[in-house]
Amino acid sequence: MMLQQQGINLLHIATKWRKEGIVDELLNTNRWLARSLDSQQSSPLHIAAEEGWLEIAKKLSSFAPETCGWRNCQSMNPIHVAAMNGRVEILEELLPINCLAARERVYRGQTVLHLCVEYRQLGALKFLVGKLGDLVEAEDEDGETVLHWAVRSNQLEMIKYLAEGKTIIKNTMNSMGKTALKILQESPRDTTTNNYSEIETILLSLPDESEHELLKMSDTTMMVVVLIATVAFQATLSPPGGFWQDDSPTHKAGKAVMASTHPTKYQEFVAANMAAIVSSLIILFFMTTGLLSKFLLIRIFAYCAMVLSLIFIVTSYNISVTVIAPDKGTQPVLLRLIWIVVVIVMVIVMIMAFILGTSTKNEYSLVTNATPSIVESCATGPTVCFPGLWLVSITTDSYKVSENSLKVQSGIPISFDLKIKIKIVVCGCSDSDMGEGAVICRARCYRVTCDYTLQMRFWKF
């Protein structure tokens, strides 16, 4: 009667006491017993995971694999139970059956890795980090990662292991604004183990957020750089217009058509693609040698090379479009204007991205004071101009920088308000604007006016 009140059946008891023969007989007689729950909402698989009975766990999971994700009254599934008891062999068996169950959170948003740290199960932690490495950065409801937990409980070996992975950020703060180092400094000194200085040294050696982001972005950056180099290489081998298929007095078979019809633009096209390839190879060299993570100057140089490679690719694309587009009216002028605006925007955005990325914390906003306008205006008199020659003028009418500083609890923010008004004027003549043999035309001019206020706030700790 007492067993019935507790919801325990013979399979629960046989599993608890590792009676494999009885477990086999019960499962063969009534396979639904594997899905039965006791008063704690624990299935027989929960019990096998807690005790570490591997063979019984295999049989139970084969009869009822869905129980791998069932939660007991403590909101734990069998994978959680195995982790908190250090049953690595059970984890090896259950994880392939239901990997998503290992990612489920328990009370207060803790992950399975938090449980390993809480119950001091280093072996289970090592196994799970190898399978679910992204959970190392996961935070609970208090904003604390496994590193916060390990430091608070003074677990030196776990801290050493987590530091070896280089995926932990030393300045990650919890909801109270405390880093792992701050928690260590506020905790009472352990005079028996004397781990304070060693843990402090490990925490100080961890990468900060900017270094961590650099490591995370390395694979993506390499993929982008390789893509740019591939596009530039392919564009050089497949120029706009293709290749001549026959020989004639003016050209030879296999030569680029663009080299004969637009020799100047072809030279610019090849030079832009070559520069893009060289810039990409420079970045690849720095990434493969590991110099990016060691020297700030090299990171700045590589960042400039990335900006140049993108600009050269855009330039190559603009030349291609200009060559294959029909030369009618103002179209070449507009294409050149669009190219100039795109390049300027790219440079500004990338410079700002680099500046903002170097601060530990930042806020910024862009306020449009006036809608950007493009106005066509013709020169008042004849202007000496040749086809394909464009004159570009960029002027800054006004700018204003205001600086304010405000001391706060987490650091000192420095705010800047940058107000700038830019005018871009592009003048030139297209082939259709000029008669045959003419060297003087009334140039078409376009004026772009931009008026913005960029508000930035940087936190320096």
From TrEMBL:
InterPro entries in the record: Ankyrin_rpt, Ankyrin_rpt-contain_sf, PGG_dom
Subcellular location: Membrane
PROSITE patterns: ANK_REP_REGION, ANK_REPEAT
Spans of repeat ANK: 142-164
Membrane topology, as annotated: Multi-pass membrane protein
Pfam families in alphabetical order: Ank_2, PGG
Residues that span the membrane, as ranges: 220-237, 269-288, 300-325, 337-356
Gene3D superfamilies with a match to the protein in the record: Ankyrin repeat-containing domain (1.25.40.20)
Keyword vocabulary terms for this entry: ANK repeat, Membrane, Repeat, Transmembrane, Transmembrane helix
Domain PGG: from-to ranges: 212-322
Cellular component GO terms, alphabetical: plasma membrane
Coiled coil start-end: none
Name recorded for this polypeptide: PGG domain-containing protein
